[in-house]
Write a structure and sequence with these properties.
It is a single chain. It is built from 15 helices and 14 strands. With about 400 residues, it is of the alpha/beta class. It has a 7-stranded mixed β-sheet with strand order 2-10-9-8-5-3-4, with helices on both faces. The radius of gyration is 22 Å and the shape is globular.
Length: about 400
């Protein structure tokens, strides 16, 4: 070949990936994504044929493993290529259409997205809202359902934007069933971190993401439909608003192994390992590890002199929300934690709080000491009066009361 004359845009000269990443790996202690176990990272580095026999077996295994995690015997368990938000959109786009009515229970930023998605498919949407930092109570839901009919009622089990748990979820789901509404639950940060019994509680649709409680790689979501919800999916008059998020097309792949789109095989391999580890640990022990780890961290935070955002009775264990002391810039605190201590935590959506995750691999004793030390150091650097030593002592004391093999 002769000389080829270069035309148009020249290729950029950029450093390789190892020069882009920080010299010392960051400990991810925010609201997600979270650190992954070695087995999960190894699985996520593989690629298989998305239409081959190995994939068929993988899908069948994932459905069985997910059934345990969701505590459901549902036949309609689907994987979604994308974040948990894609599963939320699948639920709204397949259960709602013009003429259908949805009641959105909103107590934070994430629960509010249900309303946007429901309105986007032409449904009539009403919002039952309480201030951020409060929980939705079943009594208010009962009042609304008594006077109005809704086809779908949506809620978030753990509102990660404020650190609040919907503790009355079982009662709310029961009310939905009594009034002929489908209960749709976002369990993105709560699945495998705290009890969620889909069948026993009467939840119709529940979904989660891979990168939080399951502690897997980002990019895959899981959603489970009850038989009653699936009947509604099948009654959709069409055309459905999304091709990739068409539940019937997804069902053809997940049940009959028919082509839908190129599945995120690496993410599904990692998800398989994450779910397998959940089953190996058992939900009972996993719940205990998350609860004990979070309570120990909360004790340390309070002994430092900080205030937790949510009241104890509705406090979410998987995401601990902390009020920022007056006069302290939370963005500077987080930047200092990242730059000096190589620990990352999350900010918030409107509230003046910072958030520490307690999901999956984050619930390990060395990580707790490291994040608390970094938080205390960064706050002190910003001029806040912190008793970090008291916080560390409280954390050590509370952890010492738990079984060593939990951590």
């Amino acid at each position: 070949m002769g000389n080829v004359e270069s035309r148009g845009i020249e290729p950029p000269s950029l450093p390789p990936l190892d020069q882009l990443l920080p010299a010392e790996p960051l400990l991810l202690m925010g609201a997600g994504p979270v650190p992954v176990a070695t087995e999960i990272a190894r699985a996520g580095g593989m690629v298989i044929n998305h239409l081959g026999p190995t994939m068929d077996r993988l899908v069948e295994h994932i459905k069985q493993l997910a059934g345990y995690a969701f505590q459901t015997a549902d036949k309609h368990i689907l994987g979604v290529g994308g974040p948990a938000s894609a599963a939320m959109e699948m639920a709204m786009g397949n259960l709602l259409w013009p003429g259908r009515r949805a009641l959105v229970l909103q107590n934070g930023w994430f629960s509010g997205r249900f309303a946007e998605m429901a309105a986007g498919v032409g449904a009539e949407v009403e919002v039952l809202a309480v201030p951020e930092g409060q929980a939705i109570c079943a009594e208010r839901v009962a009042e609304r359902l008594k006077n109005q009919h809704y086809d779908v009622v949506t809620m978030v089990q753990g509102e990660t934007s404020s650190g609040v748990c919907t503790t009355e979820l079982p009662a709310i789901a029961r009310l939905c069933r009594e009034h002929g509404a489908l209960a749709v639950v976002d369990a993105v940060c709560t699945l495998s971190t705290m009890p969620l019994e889909k069948d026993a509680w009467g939840v119709d649709v529940v979904f989660t993401g891979s990168q939080k409680g399951l502690s897997s790689l980002p990019g895959v979501a899981l959603i489970a439909f009850s038989d009653a919800a699936w009947e509604q999916v099948q009654q959709h008059p069409g055309p459905r608003p999304h091709w990739c998020l068409d539940a019937l097309r997804a069902e053809n792949f997940w049940q009959q192994h028919q082509y839908h789109y190129t599945a995120p095989v690496s993410g599904l391999l990692a998800l398989h390992e994450a779910l397998r580890l959940v089953c190996e640990e058992t939900l009972e022990r996993r719940f205990a590890r998350h609860r004990h780890s979070s309570l120990a961290l909360q004790a340390g935070i309070e002994k430092m002199g900080l205030v937790l955002n949510a009241p104890r009775r509705i406090r979410l264990n998987s995401v601990v929300a902390i009020q920022v002391p007056a006069g302290v810039d939370s963005a500077r605190v987080r930047a200092d934690m990242s730059n000096r201590f190589h620990v990352e935590i999350s900010g918030a959506f409107g509230l003046d709080i910072v958030r520490i995750g307690q999901m999956g691999e984050q619930c390990r004793a060395p990580h707790l000491f490291r994040v608390l030390h970094a938080l205390g150091g960064a706050l002190a650097h910003e001029g806040a009066s912190m008793n970090t030593s008291a916080g560390m002592a409280a954390l050590e004391y509370y952890l010492a009361g738990y079984a060593d093999d939990l951590f």
